[in-house]
Amino acid sequence: MKRLIIFLIGFFLAFFSLFYLYITFTKDLPEPETVIPSSLVVEYSDGSPFYFPRALWFNLDDYPEKLINALIISEDEDFFVHIGIDVLGILRGLYNTFIKKDIQGGSTLTQQLARSLYLTQERTIKRKIKEIFISFYLEKMRTKEEILELYLNTVYMGNGIYGFGTASKYYFGKEPKDLTLPEIALLVNTVKSPEYYNPQDLKGNYKKAVIVLKRLLNEEVITTEEYKKYSQELLKVKSHKVVEEKYDEEIFWRIIEELKELGFSLDILRKGFRVKTTLVKEYNEILAKTLSENNAALIFDYVTGEILGYYGKGVHSGRRQTGSLIKPFYYYKALLEGYNLDSKLFDLPIKIGDWTPENFEKDFHGQTTLEEALVHSRNVPSLNLYLMLGDNNVRTFLQKQLKIGGFYPNDLTLALGTLETSHEELAKGFSGLLNGGVVVKPHIVDEVISYDGIVYYKSKTTVENVIKGSRRSQIEASYLLINLLKEVVRRGTGVRARIPGRYIVGKTGTAEQYAWFMGADGEKLMIISQDGKDLLGGRDVAPLWKAIASKIDIGKTPFNISSIYRKLSVIKINPLKYIDYQYIYQMIQEGKMTIDTLVRILKTFDDESLFEFLSFMNSISQDLTLQLWSLLGGGD
C-alpha cells in the first residue's frame, strides 16, 4: 500500500510538473500564422514585382504530392501518427546529450516548425524542452495538414529564402507543381543544412540529394529504373537564381503606412496578399539612375491622385523649407480675389521689425506686375501681395482650402517659404491649383488582392476639398495661374527646365538648405528637391527635372482646365462612407441582426455599391467580409 501511495504521489507530481511546464511555455504564444516570415507581394502598376519576396505563401494543394512524400519520408516518416515528437529520437538525443555530451535529438516536422517559429537555433537542453512542449501545443491547436502547410511555407531554405514554394521560384524559376523529382530531391536535402546544401551552388549537393532518391527507392515510391534515371537527371539540374533588384525602403514603408490606414495589418498581409501599387516602374528606374542621395522626388497624377514615381527620403512626411515654391499658392488666392496678371505690386525696400527682406538680385524695380513678380520670383513684391491678402487669410487658405500640412512659422517669413513640409503635401496643394480647384489626396496603393484572387480593396480618387471661388471662379484662377507658370519656364527662373515642343509649367524654390523645382503638364506633375547649401532651384534642380522629364512623358499632355474639372466634378461624396459599419458588426455579434438579413439587404445593391460596402466592412472584420462574400456568390 505504501509503495502504491508513493507511486501515485510521484505520478501526480510528474503529471502536474509537466502540465505546469506546458502552460508556462505555451500560455503567451502568438498564433503561428502571425509569426511566419513575411510573404507580402508588392507590385508596380504593370504587375512586375517591386522586389523578390523572401517568403511567398502557397496553399497545401499547390504543393505536388511527390514533394510532400519525399519530405515526409526523408524527414519524418511517422508525421501523420505521432503526437508532435519522436520518442525514440528524443531518447537517442538524451543519450547523446548526457553520455556523449553532444546536445542533439531527433526532430519531427512539428518540432522543426516550433523551433523556426518560436525559438532560436541554440543547442541547449532548455531550448529542446521548450521545443517539445511547443510541439504539443501546435499539434493540439492545428491539424496535421495545417502544420504541414505551415512547415512547407516557413522552413528556411538558404539565401534568406523561406518555404519550398519560394525556393522553387528562387532556385529554379518554377511554381512548386512544376518541379521535377531531382529538383525536389535537391530542395528536400536543403532542409538539412540550408546554407551548405541549397541549390544555388550545386557542387557537392548531388551526392546528398541522391540519398533522398535512395529513401524513395527503399520505400518503394519509385522503382530501381526510376532511381537510376532520376540520379542521372540530378547531375544535369541547373540552378536559376533570381536577379534581385534593389528597392527603395522608403517606398516600401510608405506603402505599408497607407495599407495600415486602409485597415490592413502586416499580420494579415503576410498571408499571401498581393499589393498592386500606382508606381510606374520605368519612372522609378529613371529617378533612381538620375538622382543622388541628396535628392528626393515625387511624380504625381493630380487628376486621379496616383503617385507614379517616388524616390528618396521625406517624400511622404519629411519637413523641408519650401522657399519660393510656396508663392504660387497665395498668388492663386490673389487671382481668386480678383487680382489680374497686370495688377501692380510695389517693389521697394521694406522692413518688418528687424527683418529686411530682399530680392535675390539685391535690386528693386519700384513697381512691377503680379505676373513679373512670380515669373522672376521676386521676394519684396510677393511679400507685399501676401500682406495685402492678409497673413491669417493666407494661412487659412493654405491649411483649410489647399489642405497643406506641415510646420507653419508664427511670423511673416511664411510668405517667402519657411513653411516646412513634404513633397506629397505640396503636390496635394498644387493639384488644386492646376486642375481647377479640386484638392486631390495622393495615394500609392491601387489594389489589395488575396492569394485566391479576391480583390479586398480598389483605390479611387479621394477629393480632400473643392476650393471656394470668390470674385473669380476656381477654373478661371487656375487658367490664369497656369499661364503664369508657363512664363516661369519660358523666360523666368525655371527656364532651365524648358523642353522645346512640350507643354510645361513650373516653379523654382530655394531655401537655406534646400532647393526645389516643380514642373507639370496637363495631367501630372513632378517635384524634385535637393539638400545642401548654396543651391538654387533654377540653377541646380531645374536641369535635373528636365533630364528626367525628357525621358518620360511629362510635358506631352496639354492643359485643358475645363475638361479636367468636369472629370473631377463627377466625384461625389460617397454616402456609404457614413454608414456605421462597427455598429452593424456589433449587431450581428449580439444577435440583433442575422447574416442572412444583411445578405438580403446587400443583394439590393448594385455591383459598385456592394464592392464599396465590403471594402469598408473589411476594415472592421475581415472574417465577416469573407463570409458575406461567400454567401453573395463571390467564391463561385
Automatic annotation (TrEMBL):
<keyword id="KW-1003">Cell membrane</keyword>
<dbReference type="InterPro" id="IPR001264">
    <property type="entry name" value="Glyco_trans_51"/>
</dbReference>
<protein>
    <recommendedName>
        <fullName>peptidoglycan glycosyltransferase</fullName>
        <ecNumber>2.4.99.28</ecNumber>
    </recommendedName>
</protein>
<dbReference type="Pfam" id="PF00905">
    <property type="entry name" value="Transpeptidase"/>
</dbReference>
<dbReference type="Pfam" id="PF00912">
    <property type="entry name" value="Transgly"/>
</dbReference>
<dbReference type="InterPro" id="IPR001460">
    <property type="entry name" value="PCN-bd_Tpept"/>
</dbReference>
<keyword id="KW-0573">Peptidoglycan synthesis</keyword>
<keyword id="KW-0378">Hydrolase</keyword>
<keyword id="KW-0808">Transferase</keyword>
<keyword id="KW-0645">Protease</keyword>
<dbReference type="InterPro" id="IPR036950">
    <property type="entry name" value="PBP_transglycosylase"/>
</dbReference>
<keyword id="KW-0511">Multifunctional enzyme</keyword>
<dbReference type="InterPro" id="IPR050396">
    <property type="entry name" value="Glycosyltr_51/Transpeptidase"/>
</dbReference>
<dbReference type="GO" id="GO:0004180">
    <property type="term" value="F:carboxypeptidase activity"/>
</dbReference>
<keyword id="KW-0961">Cell wall biogenesis/degradation</keyword>
<feature type="domain" description="Penicillin-binding protein transpeptidase">
    <location>
        <begin position="297"/>
        <end position="518"/>
    </location>
</feature>
<dbReference type="GO" id="GO:0030288">
    <property type="term" value="C:outer membrane-bounded periplasmic space"/>
</dbReference>
<dbReference type="GO" id="GO:0008955">
    <property type="term" value="F:peptidoglycan glycosyltransferase activity"/>
</dbReference>
<dbReference type="GO" id="GO:0009252">
    <property type="term" value="P:peptidoglycan biosynthetic process"/>
</dbReference>
<keyword id="KW-0328">Glycosyltransferase</keyword>
<dbReference type="GO" id="GO:0008658">
    <property type="term" value="F:penicillin binding"/>
</dbReference>
<dbReference type="InterPro" id="IPR012338">
    <property type="entry name" value="Beta-lactam/transpept-like"/>
</dbReference>
<dbReference type="InterPro" id="IPR023346">
    <property type="entry name" value="Lysozyme-like_dom_sf"/>
</dbReference>
<dbReference type="GO" id="GO:0008360">
    <property type="term" value="P:regulation of cell shape"/>
</dbReference>
<dbReference type="GO" id="GO:0005886">
    <property type="term" value="C:plasma membrane"/>
</dbReference>
<keyword id="KW-0472">Membrane</keyword>
<keyword id="KW-0133">Cell shape</keyword>
<keyword id="KW-0121">Carboxypeptidase</keyword>
<dbReference type="GO" id="GO:0006508">
    <property type="term" value="P:proteolysis"/>
</dbReference>
<dbReference type="GO" id="GO:0071555">
    <property type="term" value="P:cell wall organization"/>
</dbReference>
<feature type="domain" description="Glycosyl transferase family 51">
    <location>
        <begin position="56"/>
        <end position="215"/>
    </location>
</feature>
